[in-house]
## 1
Amino acid sequence: MNVLYAGSLVDLMQSQLGPGFQAATRYSVAGFPGGSTGLANEIKAKVHRGDVFVSASPAVNDSLEGSANGGWVSWYATFATSPLVLGYNPKSHFAAQLRSRPWYDVITEPGFRVGRTDPATDPKGALTVQALSRTAAARHRPALKSVATETDTVFPEESLVGRLQAGQLDAGFFYRSEAVAAGIPTRPLTGVHLRATYTVTVLNEAPNPTGAAAFVRYLLGPAGRASLRKDGFSLVRPPALSGNGPPAALRSVIPTP
């Protein structure tokens, strides 16, 4: 059973959901993480063939709906959210400043290394650019616009945590849930209220629709919700349905109107 999932869910999938689902069922799980927008493009291009798609943005699912987009998605369920935050390396020599000064002043200090993801392939990258641009305008900090356009600090979503932990970065823009899972201290983005909105769907023409339905039931059931709460997600209860409605096998966990 193959799950294509947002790169911000690497720890959740590899350490909790994947092993838990495999132990609870007869299915083995193969997963491929990446920026949600990039994954959607690869689904349309048939680069990856998956059973389940877990995205960090509802709009990404919209790009897979309808015959013009290949008809890969006909419904999805929103199940959790997580705010955008600034995560930092506690060993960075800027750490004390981040704890005592506004984040938007510290990240423009000479020598500060802040990582982000690509807005073209990852919704978090797009939210990061929004956060920097809005704060630059509201706080009269034009230097933040440069941070939003630099390209040498753009990294794949699934590698950003590791780069921060390895000391290659002083800070990075993360969702709070992935920072909680990795034990990364964070600062809220004062004045900015942006967040990931996580969705799940079974892709049309999924090679293993039965296994896919079992995974969605696990994710949205008690064990999956417990893992989500552990990593600091805010749960959407009940999951909010969009589209034509899930298969009958999922109506116990995804209420239909």
Note: The chain is about 40% helix and 20% strand.
## 2
Amino acid sequence: IFICLSYSRFLEMYQSARIAVLGFVIGHEVIIFAACATIVVATGYVTFRFKKNLQQINQLLFGIAIVLLIFPVSTIVSFEVKTGRILTIDLTKGLTIGKSESENKNLPDIYYFIFDRYAGPKSLREEYGFDNSKFFNYLKDKGFYLAEDATTNYPKTSQSLGSSLNYEYINFLTEKTNGGATNDQTVVTPYTRNNKVIKFLKSKGYSYVHIGPAWNPTSINPNADKNFIFKDGLYPGADEFTTGFLNTTIAAPIFKDLFRDKTAISQDPYNNDHRKRILFEMASIREVPEMPGPKFVFMHVLIPHDPFVFGKNCQPINEEEVKKHDHVVNYLNQLTCANTMIMAMIDDILETSKTPPVIILQSDEGPFPLKTPLPPKQAWGSATTPMLKEKFPILNAFLMPGAKKDQLYQSITPVNSFRVIFNAYFDTKLPLLPDRNYVFKDENHYYQYTDVTDRLR
């Protein structure tokens, strides 16, 4: 069992192992397989041969296993009680409901697109010297309002989406997590999946379509009426955790050989899956406008987020091609490809939608500082102002046909996105919140926040 669950670790640890026999070189895969097979056969023989003498050892190991289980289970229960995550939370309490059901017949589809780590206009221009005007002019020509000074509220996907999808700040999680002193990123996951936006729009007669990446919090949503699930990867249908786990086991080399994609050009199977998943998500959108509406569509795409698997013309690239350029060049090339994909997607949606749709085109966060590396352990609490000015500016554009755009402004942040949309289309009269920017201390204090708004301004 130990060898099966750790086999890929052995392959990784002993990649340099080589044996030359009569001029033939035996690689590390053959050596590790032979060694592990020998151990398994020998252990199996000893166990079978002396099984009557192993009963006391078996009982001892069973007792140790029970003790080992008690400690993590007690820790989990204690944590869940302290954080209150096991309690049911009504996120829609106090929500103002606008128009009645009878007035919803001609409501538009609402698309919320998150392109992960897409830098804002100011970052691209001032930090990277990149001219993105062609793409921005395309958006403006299509009727989008581009908030050129927009910034994220939080520098991490889970927290940014937990806030934007509930149109509230999530600083209350500090109190729920022992002053923010936890490294558990999943504390905010329930607020992402069971969010106010979904509940409000479902109350207005909307169906919910979800398209997500391998990242577990947004891979699927149990509240969705339709989940588009990627089934063409190394482990078909597996989420991020399952993929990561299987990659450490004997399943990895077996699946790699059995389901080898001859068209895949990357050495790392994850990179091939990453590329194919992005293409799957972008292709899935084409099916959505034909679905009976009205619909709320959420799509989270890990592009231009690394790993870098596309060139500037959206051609697939491998690790060797990536090594030819520095990180900034690879990032900008993949961002240029993202622009091409986004423009084609918007054209498809606008051409096939029966009612002009509402589209929010947004990034959850900017790229990790490329020019000045962040201190270890995501120590945003000690980040310099130049680091913040790379990370916080984001893409934020709104297409709102037939509605007043008087509540939109150049520095709007994601926490106010749906307040503006709901006020415009449902007359909810939600007040706009002050646009603030927060960092967490480090990865051991995910919910211990510091306000950095003034430093960014």
Note: The radius of gyration is 25 Å.
## 3
Amino acid sequence: MLQQTTVGAVRSRYEAFLARFPDLAALARARPETVLAAWSGLGYYARARNLHTAARQILRDHAGRLPRDPAALRELAGFGDYMAAAVACLAFGARVPAVDANVTRVLSRLFAIDGVAGTRAHAEKVRIHAAALLAQGRPGDVTAALMDLGQLLCRPRDPNCRACPLSAACAAHRSGTVTRFPQKKPRPATRRVCVAAACAVRRGAALFLRHDDALLRGLWQFPTAEGATPTAAARRLQRELARLGLAIDRRSPPAVTQHTIVHRRLEIRVFRAVPFPNSKSETRNPKSVRWLTPGQLQTAAIPTLTRRIAIAADFLPPSLRPGKGAAP
């Protein structure tokens, strides 16, 4: 959960997820949609899909026990070099360096390691220093301490060097160049994307679709379309709605909202949709189409984007919105 997600966002979800799936067997038995629903709002949903797949692999190939060997761990879904090393080191005491963004930042400053974070050359330098620091007895303690130090004190901005127990030995601190380490790749420019979304409601339930796109695969979303301009997005949405036997209700002005996914800033107009007379509808397919009430939406597998559109469309009542009893 903590990969690319802050501690604050994860803290309120971790215990609930473990309560829902208390062991590997419970996770492996669950349907993919159930796992995605429990993950809803945390983003980067490939992590949830990989976690579910890995649980099934462990039951099938390892008699339900997590492998201790880093090489065996790397064979599990979602386990790259870092994840395999972190589990082997933290859980089983293997003397293998596990280097995440926090550890990279701490060691880059501590030893004034030149280079751009994320490059192979820089990562190898950091890994060598991390390996040299691992204790013989409990190497996981060193790894966990470095992770916590980067999270709590050696922050990317405004590092708390005064409270840091390593400040006297820190090369970057001694030279007054802490914020120069590590060097970072330029961030990609945020790209503006125009989106048109439709909220079709019948008997208190709204229409949702499940697509196979890589980013939000398996999640329920409102009918949407993208375009270079708001008008182009609305035209594409209208064509999508016609396939569903619906049309944009031109009598109601669209609501407006925004959402950012990675480096894409979505500027969203949310339209009301109504049945289109004499049109063939494909809304009866239960695998890709579902009608959900506001209450059902709270436990469904939906991304934050869906919840944001639901709020803009006034489909979610205030009592079910985030901060007032709803899930994040």
Note: The chain has 13 helices and eight strands.
